[in-house]
Amino acid sequence: RSGADPLLRVEGAVMQFGGLKALAGVDLSVRPGTIHGLIGPNGSGKSTMMNVLTGIYRPTEGAVVLAGSNRLDGRTPSEIALAGVARTFQNVQLFREMTALENVLVGLHHAFRGTLFDAILGTPRRRREEREARARAMAILDFVGLSNLAQVEARNLPYGKQRLLEIGRALALDPVLLLLDEPAAGLTAPDIAELTAIIRKIRDAGITVILIEHHMDVVMGLCDRVSVLDFGHKIAEGGAREIQADPKVIEAYLGS
Ligand code: ADP
Ligand code: MG
């Protein structure tokens, strides 16, 4: 693992909002097949980094490179999603009136591109693709522990299940890299245990994960490596244990 080339490389990322540098020149290197933690006090730039990685923000300076050569900075969110980078948001963003199954189907639609002709005429190809899409969506719901809730509208799911559904919808994009922004926020202890097991399963399925998380026990239990941001600067990086004992990290959290 440690010898592998990085799956994602960020070089000198700067994100300027007026007079504020939310990212002040951050380098990041994420190894394939790992869960990489991104932590830091409130306002340190974690969500901004996610938004830069997924094209919601165009960085003021710097480069984002996937798999050695694929430049992501300057590309649109949908181009970046098609390149294999999926995400969830700090606040749940689901289609609230749609069922769990339909939410995952929305994520899948890019994979099944029948022609308009197929769609209008309901051709055999179209019907076959719809069956395949539903089967894949059900498999994804099963993977995140929601198969028995497939027909429930998202707004009627308990909060912890909504978070898992968001992850399922992101997985429907068949990503190589999954970005999770505070997935455990607001969850109960049993929900967090379930979430943790699913994130580990995602990594074991070969999907690289970047995890922003405030619950330190979740970070310690899951992350192969952790980067720490403070006021837009990376102040530390290393194994989870090493990071937890780092005086600079402790000071940043105490000061917040
Ligand atoms: P974190 O996720 O680590 O809590 P954020 O990345 O959300 O922090 O924010 C980092 C800093 O950038 C904060 O000071 C925040 O107010 C600022 N910021 C984030 N997004 C914007 C924006 N769109 N416009 C202006 N300032 C922003
Ligand atoms: Mg945030």
From TrEMBL:
Keywords for the protein's UniProt record, in alphabetical order: ATP-binding, Cell membrane, Membrane, Nucleotide-binding, Transmembrane, Transmembrane helix, Transport
Supply one GO molecular-function term.
branched-chain amino acid transmembrane transporter activity
- Subcellular location(s) of the protein: Cell membrane
Can you give the residue ranges of the ABC transporter domain? Answer: 8-256
For this record, the Gene Ontology CC terms, alphabetical, are: plasma membrane
Q: What is this protein called?
A: ABC transporter related
Which organism is the protein's source?
Methylobacterium nodulans (strain LMG 21967 / CNCM I-2342 / ORS 2060)
The top of its lineage is: Bacteria, Pseudomonadati, Pseudomonadota, Alphaproteobacteria, Hyphomicrobiales
Which residues of the complete protein appear here?
Answer: 416 to 671 of 678
